[in-house]
Amino acid sequence: MRRFRRLRSGEGIRRLVRETHISRKELIYPIFVEEGEGIKLPVESMPGVFRYSLDTVDEILRETDKSGISGVLVFGIPKHKDEKASQAYDENGITQRAVRLIKEKYPEMLVIADVCLCEYTSHGHCGVVCGHEILNDETLPLLAKMAVSLAEAGADIIAPSDMMDGRVSFLRRALDENGFINTPIMSYSAKFASGYYSPFRDAADSAPGFGDRRTYQMDFPNGREALREIADDIDEGADIVMVKPALAYLDVIRSARDRFDLPIAAYNVSGEYSMVKAAAANGWIDEKRIILENLTAIKRAGADIIITYHALEAAEWLEEI
Ligand code: PBG
Ligand code: ZN
Is the CB of 118 under 6 A from ligand 1? Predict the structure, then answer.
């Protein structure tokens, strides 16, 4: 008889033959920074996640630094929002100031800057709006200005999440022309229009004021189209590609891993996080077990980099290799 149970008989042997390991170095923690002073505002829909002002954010940066993970993904929330998202590319915008502050205090921490207009526009859409239409080509120059200003502030990686067509090549050219030839682009390539983003829109104050994001984010039944999006971003010059959300899209991560050789990031998004937290708060699941199982599933599907709100707690639980 083939006795599979031989290799499961104790933790020592299970550890020896374990196929998937997560390193802290593969984890990225998203942080929210808003204008103002003395702020540490709990995000209601995301227990354990807070919005910080620049004078309080060091608390979470220090923790991140100690955790051994690779870095942070920065989201800025400006006070002033307008049609043109002017705070998105202001050199003294909240996000630019946050990036500068982090790199000054923690030069070794990787700072990934999310590039998108939705936190900065009065209507909450990711691009320039005309009537009820979200304009593609008119949005690209604003994204480029934002990317360059964040690179100037010291961002290590530029991560466009807007889902406008052609933005990777547009941003690549803008970065190169401004001397940032060595700043990588991590593209949110296969970003689906997902119900899993709702808690984030609370956190980042970025819910669209009318309509939804389905004319630019991907239709969730489409797996093959996701691979075309990724292939196109690679052609346009992306250095790292991303699949988002993660857990409901493990098939996409796996296909992307099998087809492409670039590093693949997966974004374990807000709704995925909040569902775990809510069930755990009710005593319905064992939180630590579920988090490690979820993150391992994302890694096993083929992700090289995992962006997750669980990063700091998970870092404490992971065995280091
Ligand atoms: C901005 C952006 C969003 C997320 C990351 N960047 C929200 C959206 O597209 O509506 C979602 C992250 C999360 O849910 O954790 N475009
Ligand atoms: Zn957006």
Answer: yes
Which residue out of 66, 81, 84, 244 is catalytically annotated? 244
Q: Considering only CA atoms, which of 319, 313, 308, 289 is closest in space to residue 67? A: 313
Q: In degrees rounded to 5, what are phi and psi of residue 115?
A: -115, 110
Express each pLDDT in 197-245 by its tens digit.
999 998 998 999 999 999 999 999 999 999 999 999 999 999 999 999 9
CATH number for 21-243: choose from 3.40.50.720, 3.20.20.70, 3.90.25.10, 3.40.50.170: 3.20.20.70
Instruction: With beta carbons less than 8 A apart as the criterion, state whether 52 and 39 touch.
Output: yes
The CB-side HSE value for 223 (13 A sphere, CA atoms) comes to 10
State the virtual CA torsion across 188, 190, 193, 194 in degrees, nearest 10.
Answer: -90
Give dist(CA 116, CA 120) in Å, integer. 8
Take residue 273 and report the two structure tokens written for it.
């996080």
Amino acid at 166: G
Q: Which residues of 95-123 are buried (b: 16+ CB within 10 A; e: fewer)?
A: bbbbbbbbbeebeebbbbbbbbbbbbbeb
For 168-177, 206-215, 244-253, 260-269, which range has the lowest pLDDT when averaged over its residues?
206-215
Give the position of tokens 């889902």. Answer: 163
What are the φ/ψ torsions at residue 247 (nearest 5 degrees)? -70, -35
Told to judge if 288 belongs to the known catalytic residues of this protein, a careful annotator would answer no
3-state SS assignment for residue 183:
coil
- From the CA of 269, give the closest atom in ligand 1: 15
| 26 touches ligand 1 (CB under 6 Å) | no
Question: Is ligand 1 within 6 A of the CB of residue 194?
Answer: no
